[in-house]
Specification:
The chain is an alpha+beta fold. Helix content is about 20%, strand content about 20%. Strand 9 and strand 10 form a beta hairpin. The longest helix is centred in the first third of the chain and has 19 residues. About 15% of the residues have low confidence.
Length: about 425
Amino acid sequence: MPDQSTPQALPEARTSGEAEAGVPSETPSPEGLTRRRLLGTAGATGLALGAVGGAVGYTAAPSPTTPLSSIGSDEAMFHVKHQPGITQGLQARGHLVAFDLAAGAGRKEAAALLRRWSETARRLMAGEAVATGDSDVARDAGPCSLTVTFGFGNTFFARTGLEKQRPVALDPLPDFSSDHLDRTRSNGDLWVQIGANDALVAFHALRAIQKDAGSAAKVRWQMNGFNRTPGATAHPMTARNLMGQMDGTRNPKPADSDFDQRIFVPADSPKDPAWMADGSYAVVRRIRMLLDDWEKLPVKAQEQVIGRRKSDGAALSGGGETTEMDLEKTDAHGDLVVPINAHARITRPDQNGGAAMLRRPFSYHDGIDPDGTPDAGLLFVCWQADPLRGFVTVQRKLDRGDALSTYIRHESSGLFAVPGGAAEGEYVGQRLLEA
Protein backbone atom coordinates (compact mmCIF):
# COMPACT_ATOMS: atom_id res chain seq x y z
CA MET A 1 0.00 0.00 0.00
CA PRO A 2 2.33 2.74 -1.21
CA ASP A 3 2.30 5.97 0.82
CA GLN A 4 0.62 8.61 -1.30
CA SER A 5 -2.14 11.44 -0.71
CA THR A 6 -5.82 11.97 -1.30
CA PRO A 7 -6.42 13.82 -4.57
CA GLN A 8 -8.71 16.82 -4.57
CA ALA A 9 -11.65 17.07 -6.95
CA LEU A 10 -10.87 18.82 -10.23
CA PRO A 11 -13.07 21.38 -11.98
CA GLU A 12 -14.68 18.68 -14.14
CA ALA A 13 -16.77 17.83 -11.09
CA ARG A 14 -19.45 20.46 -10.60
CA THR A 15 -22.71 20.99 -8.81
CA SER A 16 -26.02 20.31 -10.46
CA GLY A 17 -26.75 24.00 -10.13
CA GLU A 18 -23.77 24.72 -12.37
CA ALA A 19 -24.79 21.91 -14.69
CA GLU A 20 -28.08 23.63 -15.49
CA ALA A 21 -26.27 26.44 -17.35
CA GLY A 22 -24.97 25.92 -20.88
CA VAL A 23 -25.68 22.20 -21.23
CA PRO A 24 -28.55 20.32 -22.89
CA SER A 25 -31.67 20.05 -20.80
CA GLU A 26 -32.27 16.81 -18.93
CA THR A 27 -33.90 13.91 -20.74
CA PRO A 28 -37.26 13.18 -19.10
CA SER A 29 -37.73 9.94 -17.24
CA PRO A 30 -40.68 7.69 -18.19
CA GLU A 31 -42.73 9.70 -15.68
CA GLY A 32 -41.69 13.01 -17.33
CA LEU A 33 -39.43 14.02 -14.46
CA THR A 34 -35.73 13.67 -13.85
CA ARG A 35 -34.53 13.04 -10.30
CA ARG A 36 -32.93 16.48 -10.38
CA ARG A 37 -36.07 18.26 -11.61
CA LEU A 38 -38.19 16.41 -9.06
CA LEU A 39 -36.02 17.62 -6.22
CA GLY A 40 -34.90 21.10 -7.31
CA THR A 41 -31.15 21.32 -6.85
CA ALA A 42 -30.81 25.09 -6.71
CA GLY A 43 -27.36 26.61 -6.34
CA ALA A 44 -25.65 24.22 -3.90
CA THR A 45 -21.84 24.19 -3.74
CA GLY A 46 -20.09 20.91 -4.65
CA LEU A 47 -17.45 19.76 -2.17
CA ALA A 48 -14.66 17.18 -2.28
CA LEU A 49 -13.42 14.88 0.50
CA GLY A 50 -13.91 16.52 3.88
CA ALA A 51 -16.75 18.80 2.69
CA VAL A 52 -18.91 20.38 5.34
CA GLY A 53 -22.62 19.54 5.45
CA GLY A 54 -24.72 16.54 6.36
CA ALA A 55 -26.32 14.23 3.81
CA VAL A 56 -30.07 14.58 4.21
CA GLY A 57 -32.69 12.44 2.44
CA TYR A 58 -35.55 14.32 0.77
CA THR A 59 -38.85 13.00 -0.53
CA ALA A 60 -40.82 14.52 -3.39
CA ALA A 61 -42.02 17.95 -2.30
CA PRO A 62 -44.65 20.36 -3.59
CA SER A 63 -43.53 23.54 -5.31
CA PRO A 64 -41.40 25.37 -4.27
CA THR A 65 -39.07 22.43 -3.97
CA THR A 66 -36.47 21.99 -1.24
CA PRO A 67 -32.86 22.24 -2.48
CA LEU A 68 -30.59 19.30 -1.91
CA SER A 69 -27.71 19.43 0.51
CA SER A 70 -24.33 20.10 -1.09
CA ILE A 71 -23.46 16.41 -0.88
CA GLY A 72 -26.56 15.38 -2.80
CA SER A 73 -26.21 17.99 -5.53
CA ASP A 74 -22.51 17.55 -6.27
CA GLU A 75 -22.15 16.20 -9.81
CA ALA A 76 -19.24 14.77 -11.80
CA MET A 77 -19.34 15.07 -15.58
CA PHE A 78 -19.40 12.00 -17.83
CA HIS A 79 -18.11 13.53 -21.08
CA VAL A 80 -14.63 14.62 -20.02
CA LYS A 81 -11.08 14.16 -21.28
CA HIS A 82 -10.22 11.50 -18.70
CA GLN A 83 -12.88 9.12 -17.46
CA PRO A 84 -14.56 10.15 -14.18
CA GLY A 85 -13.52 8.34 -11.01
CA ILE A 86 -9.78 8.91 -11.39
CA THR A 87 -8.98 12.44 -10.25
CA GLN A 88 -12.04 13.11 -8.08
CA GLY A 89 -11.69 13.05 -4.31
CA LEU A 90 -12.37 9.85 -2.39
CA GLN A 91 -16.03 8.86 -2.28
CA ALA A 92 -17.94 7.51 0.70
CA ARG A 93 -19.15 4.35 -1.02
CA GLY A 94 -17.76 2.22 -3.81
CA HIS A 95 -18.31 -0.96 -5.79
CA LEU A 96 -15.70 -2.70 -7.93
CA VAL A 97 -17.05 -5.34 -10.29
CA ALA A 98 -15.51 -7.41 -13.07
CA PHE A 99 -17.40 -9.11 -15.89
CA ASP A 100 -16.53 -11.86 -18.34
CA LEU A 101 -18.12 -11.84 -21.79
CA ALA A 102 -20.64 -14.64 -22.24
CA ALA A 103 -19.83 -17.64 -24.40
CA GLY A 104 -20.28 -16.64 -28.02
CA ALA A 105 -20.22 -12.92 -27.30
CA GLY A 106 -17.60 -10.98 -29.24
CA ARG A 107 -16.75 -7.54 -30.54
CA LYS A 108 -20.28 -6.68 -31.71
CA GLU A 109 -21.85 -7.61 -28.38
CA ALA A 110 -19.11 -5.82 -26.46
CA ALA A 111 -19.67 -2.62 -28.44
CA ALA A 112 -23.40 -2.74 -27.80
CA LEU A 113 -22.76 -3.34 -24.10
CA LEU A 114 -20.36 -0.39 -23.75
CA ARG A 115 -22.87 1.78 -25.57
CA ARG A 116 -25.59 0.79 -23.07
CA TRP A 117 -23.28 1.18 -20.09
CA SER A 118 -22.09 4.62 -21.21
CA GLU A 119 -25.62 5.95 -21.63
CA THR A 120 -26.67 4.56 -18.26
CA ALA A 121 -23.59 6.06 -16.59
CA ARG A 122 -24.21 9.45 -18.21
CA ARG A 123 -27.81 9.56 -17.03
CA LEU A 124 -27.13 8.38 -13.49
CA MET A 125 -24.17 10.73 -13.01
CA ALA A 126 -26.49 13.60 -14.02
CA GLY A 127 -29.02 12.57 -11.39
CA GLU A 128 -31.46 11.15 -13.91
CA ALA A 129 -33.27 7.82 -13.95
CA VAL A 130 -32.12 5.07 -16.31
CA ALA A 131 -33.87 5.00 -19.68
CA THR A 132 -36.14 2.05 -18.93
CA GLY A 133 -37.02 -0.05 -15.91
CA ASP A 134 -35.52 2.20 -13.24
CA SER A 135 -35.70 0.55 -9.81
CA ASP A 136 -36.30 3.90 -8.01
CA VAL A 137 -33.66 3.03 -5.41
CA ALA A 138 -32.11 6.50 -5.83
CA ARG A 139 -35.32 8.37 -6.72
CA ASP A 140 -35.06 10.80 -3.80
CA ALA A 141 -31.37 11.58 -4.20
CA GLY A 142 -29.27 13.86 -6.35
CA PRO A 143 -26.11 12.82 -8.20
CA CYS A 144 -24.09 12.58 -4.94
CA SER A 145 -20.76 12.75 -6.83
CA LEU A 146 -21.52 9.47 -8.61
CA THR A 147 -18.78 8.30 -10.98
CA VAL A 148 -18.74 5.21 -13.20
CA THR A 149 -15.46 4.12 -14.79
CA PHE A 150 -14.91 1.36 -17.37
CA GLY A 151 -11.81 -0.69 -18.23
CA PHE A 152 -10.64 -3.67 -20.29
CA GLY A 153 -8.71 -6.67 -19.00
CA ASN A 154 -6.01 -8.66 -20.79
CA THR A 155 -8.44 -11.43 -21.84
CA PHE A 156 -10.93 -9.02 -23.43
CA PHE A 157 -8.85 -8.63 -26.56
CA ALA A 158 -8.69 -12.31 -27.51
CA ARG A 159 -12.42 -12.67 -26.81
CA THR A 160 -13.23 -9.86 -29.25
CA GLY A 161 -10.63 -10.53 -31.95
CA LEU A 162 -8.75 -7.37 -31.08
CA GLU A 163 -5.43 -8.94 -30.08
CA LYS A 164 -3.45 -6.46 -32.20
CA GLN A 165 -4.95 -3.60 -30.19
CA ARG A 166 -3.99 -5.03 -26.79
CA PRO A 167 -1.51 -2.74 -25.01
CA VAL A 168 1.82 -4.27 -24.03
CA ALA A 169 1.26 -2.65 -20.63
CA LEU A 170 -1.55 -5.17 -20.04
CA ASP A 171 0.90 -8.07 -19.80
CA PRO A 172 0.10 -10.01 -16.60
CA LEU A 173 1.56 -8.63 -13.40
CA PRO A 174 4.48 -10.65 -11.97
CA ASP A 175 4.09 -12.73 -8.84
CA PHE A 176 4.95 -11.08 -5.52
CA SER A 177 5.90 -12.71 -2.23
CA SER A 178 2.90 -11.18 -0.43
CA ASP A 179 0.46 -12.68 -2.95
CA HIS A 180 -2.12 -15.22 -1.78
CA LEU A 181 -4.35 -14.68 -4.80
CA ASP A 182 -7.79 -16.13 -5.35
CA ARG A 183 -7.88 -16.44 -9.13
CA THR A 184 -11.68 -16.49 -9.20
CA ARG A 185 -11.69 -12.99 -7.69
CA SER A 186 -8.94 -11.63 -9.95
CA ASN A 187 -8.76 -10.09 -13.44
CA GLY A 188 -11.74 -10.29 -15.85
CA ASP A 189 -12.63 -9.21 -19.38
CA LEU A 190 -14.26 -5.96 -18.27
CA TRP A 191 -14.00 -3.87 -15.11
CA VAL A 192 -16.35 -1.25 -13.69
CA GLN A 193 -15.60 1.09 -10.79
CA ILE A 194 -18.58 2.85 -9.16
CA GLY A 195 -18.23 5.52 -6.49
CA ALA A 196 -20.67 7.93 -4.83
CA ASN A 197 -21.17 9.84 -1.60
CA ASP A 198 -24.43 8.01 -0.90
CA ALA A 199 -24.75 4.24 -0.48
CA LEU A 200 -28.12 3.97 -2.23
CA VAL A 201 -26.94 6.01 -5.21
CA ALA A 202 -23.89 3.73 -5.55
CA PHE A 203 -26.01 0.58 -5.24
CA HIS A 204 -28.52 1.91 -7.76
CA ALA A 205 -25.72 2.36 -10.30
CA LEU A 206 -24.35 -1.11 -9.55
CA ARG A 207 -27.73 -2.75 -10.20
CA ALA A 208 -28.27 -0.74 -13.37
CA ILE A 209 -24.86 -1.72 -14.75
CA GLN A 210 -25.45 -5.37 -13.87
CA LYS A 211 -28.88 -5.39 -15.54
CA ASP A 212 -27.49 -3.67 -18.63
CA ALA A 213 -25.01 -6.53 -19.05
CA GLY A 214 -27.95 -8.77 -19.95
CA SER A 215 -26.87 -11.86 -21.84
CA ALA A 216 -23.64 -10.28 -23.12
CA ALA A 217 -21.59 -10.61 -19.93
CA LYS A 218 -21.76 -12.13 -16.47
CA VAL A 219 -20.30 -10.97 -13.19
CA ARG A 220 -16.93 -12.57 -12.42
CA TRP A 221 -16.44 -10.90 -9.03
CA GLN A 222 -17.72 -7.92 -7.05
CA MET A 223 -16.22 -6.05 -4.07
CA ASN A 224 -17.83 -3.35 -1.94
CA GLY A 225 -15.97 -0.58 -0.14
CA PHE A 226 -16.29 2.65 1.81
CA ASN A 227 -14.43 5.75 2.90
CA ARG A 228 -15.08 8.48 5.41
CA THR A 229 -18.24 10.44 4.58
CA PRO A 230 -17.68 14.04 3.43
CA GLY A 231 -18.29 16.39 6.32
CA ALA A 232 -17.35 13.86 9.00
CA THR A 233 -14.24 15.86 9.94
CA ALA A 234 -14.02 19.51 10.94
CA HIS A 235 -11.87 20.30 7.92
CA PRO A 236 -10.61 18.46 4.80
CA MET A 237 -7.84 16.01 5.63
CA THR A 238 -6.16 12.87 4.39
CA ALA A 239 -8.33 9.79 4.93
CA ARG A 240 -7.47 7.02 7.37
CA ASN A 241 -7.47 3.31 6.60
CA LEU A 242 -8.68 0.49 8.86
CA MET A 243 -5.30 0.39 10.59
CA GLY A 244 -5.99 3.94 11.79
CA GLN A 245 -3.16 5.39 9.71
CA MET A 246 -3.46 8.37 7.41
CA ASP A 247 -3.33 6.75 4.01
CA GLY A 248 -2.21 8.79 1.02
CA THR A 249 0.01 11.61 2.20
CA ARG A 250 2.30 11.63 -0.84
CA ASN A 251 -0.17 11.08 -3.67
CA PRO A 252 0.68 12.94 -6.89
CA LYS A 253 -1.47 16.06 -7.14
CA PRO A 254 -3.13 17.44 -10.29
CA ALA A 255 -1.23 20.69 -9.76
CA ASP A 256 2.11 18.87 -10.11
CA SER A 257 3.88 19.73 -13.36
CA ASP A 258 4.41 16.06 -14.21
CA PHE A 259 1.00 14.78 -13.01
CA ASP A 260 -0.41 13.99 -16.47
CA GLN A 261 2.89 12.43 -17.53
CA ARG A 262 2.79 10.02 -14.58
CA ILE A 263 -0.92 9.19 -14.60
CA PHE A 264 -2.28 9.42 -18.16
CA VAL A 265 -1.25 7.95 -21.50
CA PRO A 266 -0.20 10.76 -23.90
CA ALA A 267 -1.80 11.02 -27.33
CA ASP A 268 1.59 10.50 -28.98
CA SER A 269 2.68 7.52 -26.86
CA PRO A 270 5.10 5.33 -28.84
CA LYS A 271 4.23 2.18 -26.87
CA ASP A 272 0.46 2.45 -26.39
CA PRO A 273 -2.26 2.04 -29.03
CA ALA A 274 -3.99 5.24 -30.18
CA TRP A 275 -7.29 4.31 -28.51
CA MET A 276 -5.59 4.60 -25.09
CA ALA A 277 -4.83 8.32 -25.53
CA ASP A 278 -5.78 10.22 -22.34
CA GLY A 279 -6.46 6.92 -20.59
CA SER A 280 -4.72 5.26 -17.66
CA TYR A 281 -3.96 1.82 -16.26
CA ALA A 282 -5.67 0.68 -13.07
CA VAL A 283 -4.16 -1.90 -10.74
CA VAL A 284 -6.78 -3.34 -8.39
CA ARG A 285 -5.75 -5.37 -5.32
CA ARG A 286 -7.83 -6.70 -2.45
CA ILE A 287 -5.39 -6.33 0.44
CA ARG A 288 -6.44 -8.00 3.67
CA MET A 289 -5.25 -6.33 6.84
CA LEU A 290 -4.38 -8.73 9.66
CA LEU A 291 -6.00 -6.42 12.17
CA ASP A 292 -5.83 -8.76 15.19
CA ASP A 293 -2.03 -8.86 14.87
CA TRP A 294 -1.73 -5.18 14.02
CA GLU A 295 -3.80 -3.99 16.95
CA LYS A 296 -1.63 -5.91 19.41
CA LEU A 297 1.26 -3.59 18.55
CA PRO A 298 1.71 -0.50 20.71
CA VAL A 299 1.25 2.77 18.83
CA LYS A 300 5.00 3.46 18.81
CA ALA A 301 5.67 0.12 17.10
CA GLN A 302 2.94 0.79 14.55
CA GLU A 303 4.56 4.12 13.78
CA GLN A 304 7.93 2.42 13.27
CA VAL A 305 6.32 0.06 10.74
CA ILE A 306 4.80 2.91 8.76
CA GLY A 307 7.45 5.60 9.36
CA ARG A 308 4.84 8.23 10.26
CA ARG A 309 3.06 9.38 13.42
CA LYS A 310 -0.36 7.86 13.79
CA SER A 311 -1.90 10.99 15.29
CA ASP A 312 -1.28 13.40 12.43
CA GLY A 313 0.53 11.52 9.64
CA ALA A 314 3.77 13.45 10.08
CA ALA A 315 7.05 11.69 9.28
CA LEU A 316 8.95 10.39 12.30
CA SER A 317 11.76 12.75 11.33
CA GLY A 318 9.57 15.68 12.42
CA GLY A 319 7.36 18.49 11.14
CA GLY A 320 3.78 18.16 9.91
CA GLU A 321 2.06 15.74 7.55
CA THR A 322 3.44 17.36 4.41
CA THR A 323 6.93 18.08 5.75
CA GLU A 324 9.55 16.36 3.63
CA MET A 325 10.82 13.18 5.29
CA ASP A 326 14.45 13.34 6.40
CA LEU A 327 15.74 9.88 5.50
CA GLU A 328 19.17 10.48 7.04
CA LYS A 329 18.10 11.78 10.46
CA THR A 330 19.31 9.70 13.41
CA ASP A 331 18.47 9.57 17.11
CA ALA A 332 20.78 9.89 20.13
CA HIS A 333 21.90 6.28 19.63
CA GLY A 334 22.79 6.82 15.98
CA ASP A 335 19.81 4.82 14.70
CA LEU A 336 17.74 6.06 11.77
CA VAL A 337 14.62 7.85 13.02
CA VAL A 338 12.69 6.51 10.04
CA PRO A 339 13.57 2.78 10.00
CA ILE A 340 15.21 1.38 6.89
CA ASN A 341 12.23 -0.97 6.33
CA ALA A 342 9.48 1.57 7.12
CA HIS A 343 6.67 1.49 4.59
CA ALA A 344 6.72 5.24 3.96
CA ARG A 345 10.49 5.20 3.27
CA ILE A 346 10.34 2.30 0.83
CA THR A 347 7.43 3.67 -1.22
CA ARG A 348 8.82 7.17 -1.78
CA PRO A 349 9.21 7.99 -5.50
CA ASP A 350 12.80 9.13 -4.90
CA GLN A 351 13.55 5.65 -3.58
CA ASN A 352 12.04 4.02 -6.69
CA GLY A 353 13.53 5.89 -9.62
CA GLY A 354 10.70 8.43 -9.59
CA ALA A 355 7.97 5.77 -9.85
CA ALA A 356 4.62 7.11 -8.69
CA MET A 357 0.95 6.24 -8.90
CA LEU A 358 -2.31 7.89 -7.96
CA ARG A 359 -3.94 5.89 -5.18
CA ARG A 360 -7.74 6.01 -4.90
CA PRO A 361 -8.74 3.12 -2.63
CA PHE A 362 -11.76 2.03 -0.61
CA SER A 363 -11.72 0.21 2.72
CA TYR A 364 -13.76 -2.98 3.02
CA HIS A 365 -15.20 -5.21 5.74
CA ASP A 366 -16.76 -8.49 4.61
CA GLY A 367 -17.66 -9.93 7.98
CA ILE A 368 -15.95 -12.30 10.40
CA ASP A 369 -14.31 -15.63 9.58
CA PRO A 370 -15.38 -18.74 11.53
CA ASP A 371 -12.32 -18.36 13.76
CA GLY A 372 -13.35 -14.81 14.66
CA THR A 373 -10.83 -13.08 12.38
CA PRO A 374 -12.18 -9.96 10.66
CA ASP A 375 -12.16 -10.10 6.86
CA ALA A 376 -11.28 -6.45 6.38
CA GLY A 377 -8.72 -4.31 4.66
CA LEU A 378 -8.19 -2.17 1.57
CA LEU A 379 -9.57 -2.32 -1.96
CA PHE A 380 -6.41 -0.83 -3.40
CA VAL A 381 -6.90 0.99 -6.71
CA CYS A 382 -4.00 2.89 -8.24
CA TRP A 383 -3.66 4.74 -11.53
CA GLN A 384 -0.59 5.26 -13.69
CA ALA A 385 0.46 5.80 -17.29
CA ASP A 386 2.68 2.69 -17.13
CA PRO A 387 2.01 -0.06 -14.56
CA LEU A 388 5.47 -1.59 -15.03
CA ARG A 389 7.09 1.69 -14.05
CA GLY A 390 4.44 2.54 -11.43
CA PHE A 391 2.92 -0.28 -9.41
CA VAL A 392 5.32 -3.07 -10.34
CA THR A 393 8.45 -1.05 -9.52
CA VAL A 394 7.16 -0.07 -6.08
CA GLN A 395 5.70 -3.48 -5.23
CA ARG A 396 8.96 -5.22 -6.07
CA LYS A 397 10.73 -2.87 -3.67
CA LEU A 398 8.13 -3.63 -0.98
CA ASP A 399 8.66 -7.36 -1.58
CA ARG A 400 12.30 -6.98 -0.57
CA GLY A 401 11.69 -5.84 2.99
CA ASP A 402 8.61 -3.79 3.82
CA ALA A 403 7.87 -3.89 7.56
CA LEU A 404 4.15 -3.68 6.79
CA SER A 405 4.11 -6.94 4.82
CA THR A 406 3.83 -8.94 8.07
CA TYR A 407 0.42 -7.38 8.67
CA ILE A 408 -1.19 -7.54 5.21
CA ARG A 409 -2.00 -10.15 2.57
CA HIS A 410 -2.79 -9.54 -1.10
CA GLU A 411 -5.77 -11.79 -1.86
CA SER A 412 -6.87 -10.79 -5.35
CA SER A 413 -5.49 -8.75 -8.24
CA GLY A 414 -6.41 -7.19 -11.54
CA LEU A 415 -4.90 -4.94 -14.18
CA PHE A 416 -7.13 -2.98 -16.56
CA ALA A 417 -6.68 -0.58 -19.47
CA VAL A 418 -9.00 2.38 -18.91
CA PRO A 419 -9.40 4.44 -22.09
CA GLY A 420 -9.85 8.19 -22.13
CA GLY A 421 -13.24 9.78 -21.56
CA ALA A 422 -15.98 9.58 -24.16
CA ALA A 423 -16.61 12.74 -26.18
CA GLU A 424 -20.16 14.02 -26.70
CA GLY A 425 -21.97 11.47 -28.85
CA GLU A 426 -19.44 8.71 -28.12
CA TYR A 427 -19.42 5.75 -25.76
CA VAL A 428 -16.43 4.63 -23.71
CA GLY A 429 -14.15 2.37 -25.76
CA GLN A 430 -15.67 3.36 -29.12
CA ARG A 431 -12.29 4.20 -30.59
CA LEU A 432 -11.17 0.64 -29.81
CA LEU A 433 -14.32 -1.27 -30.72
CA GLU A 434 -15.10 0.62 -33.93
CA ALA A 435 -11.56 1.12 -35.19
